[in-house]
Amino acid sequence: AQRAVEDERPPHDVDDGHALAEAGDAEELMRWLIAPVPLETFMRDIWERRPVYVSRNAHKGYFDGLLSKADIDEWLRAGKMRYQRNVDVTSYKDGVRRTHNLNDDGSGGVDETTNEPGFADADTVWRRFDEEGCSLRVLHPQRWRDPLWKTLAALERFWNCSTGCNCYLTPADSQGFSPHYDDIDAFILQLEGKKMWRVYPPRSEAEMLPRYSSPNFGPDEIGEPVLEVILEPGDLLYMPRGTVHQAHCVPGDHSLHVTLSTNQFNTWADLLEVAFPAALRAAAAEVPALRRCPPPDYLTHLGVRAANAAEPPEGGSPGDGAHGVNLDAVNPRRDDMVGALVELAQCVMRRLPFDAAADFIGARLMRQRLPPPPSHVSAPAAAVGANAALAVTDETVVRITQEEGARLVVEDDAVVVCHPFGNGRLLHMEGGDDEEGDEERDE
């Protein structure tokens, strides 16, 4: 399958990504992001299946204006960035990944009284960057950068799940993170400089589309790459969840890229994780058999020991036991219990509330989403504030000012409209989509 695509479109055929983000056109923005790969091809053949690299030698300024090194410097010098929460200073040398979230004067650690991490000192951070070859990971820069806010707000409506981003600033000829895979679908947008990426396939079927990120891997644990590319400004790299990867800034200049992340905990398993407990509660309320006590001997016939006793020994036959013990593979009592449990489980399965589970997840999404930028709504609200609801009567005509901007659900026998218009921007995705955990040692 083709893993590299060259964007050879003439300039007049290239849409203005900033205009699309400003307008909040979710589908068109997604088309722009992965162009020239058609969106239909991406969703059918690439998404969740394989990585793809889009080279834009003819469009080096494709992502200009999203974020810059100068923006990061401004935030640091304004005293806005706390270690761990807003920025991590990291290194990866001699196969060891380290975190350096302390200032030169010893400040910056977690306050024992408030449990708040300290602020990063700009001079310390840039000294580590310039002299020690440390990388910076800026977490969730959409809180301060409007172009990223508008981009993510639109993409959240396309994917119908929380969508976040981190940015990574790496000095020339260095690496900040060890090989690993993530629990997100990652879109890497190269903004400044060049970076060598090595991409590896999932190591096993069990690690395909994982729900949790991996620990750090050593070089002998990851095999051979299926894709090895140098990202330059304007280039895009898509990696499905579970794609093992590592990146190294090439000599000459720093590298800055943004990782857009989506589809974390957005699987059929997550929907069923909500539906199964609700189905069990409903079935227990409606089916008396589920409320009966199990027989006193059920622990004798169910469990690891009972299950092993029901299987013949390796290389033997039913009735052959170790050390002269007869392991009778025929256990009618166990079979009856397992059969009864299967019937009870089917009672639960028939009551799976798929629609209610989808509403629960949809309402949760509305509470997690970025607030829509003003340019994404069709008209200003006629009534705002804490008392706005008092003006609404049975005769009031209510209009949603953004497509997919609300979710109607039933909660505790009440009809509730969930929406993102009152959400905050500063805590969006807080702690939810980091590419790599923070359990590494601090220095």
Oligomer designation? single chain
Distance between the termini: 44 Å
Proportion of β residues? 15-25%
Structural class: alpha+beta
Q: What's the shape?
A: globular
Order of helices and strands: EHHHEHEEHEHEEEEEEEHHHHHEE
Cα Rg = 27 Å
Biggest sheet statistics:
9 strands, mixed
Low-confidence stretches: 319-328, 431-443
Summarize this structure as a short list of keywords or feature phrases:
nine-stranded mixed β-sheet, three-stranded antiparallel β-sheet, 443 residues
Please, could you describe this protein's structure?
It is a single chain. Helices cover 27% and strands 18% of the residues. It contains 11 helices and 14 strands. The radius of gyration is 27 Å and the shape is globular. The two termini are 44 Å apart.
Q: Short description, anyone?
A:
By secondary structure, this protein is an alpha+beta fold. The chain is built from eleven helices and 14 strands.
Secondary structure blueprint with pairings:
Elements: E1 4-6, H1 17-23, H2 26-34, H3 39-46, E2 52-55, H4 69-77, E3 87-93, E4 96-99, H5 122-131, E5 135-139, H6 146-159, E6 163-170, E7 185-192, E8 195-200, E9 227-231, E10 236-239, E11 244-249, E12 255-262, H7 268-286, H8 298-301, H9 304-309, H10 332-349, H11 354-368, E13 407-411, E14 414-418
Helix pairs in contact: 1-6, 2-6, 7-11
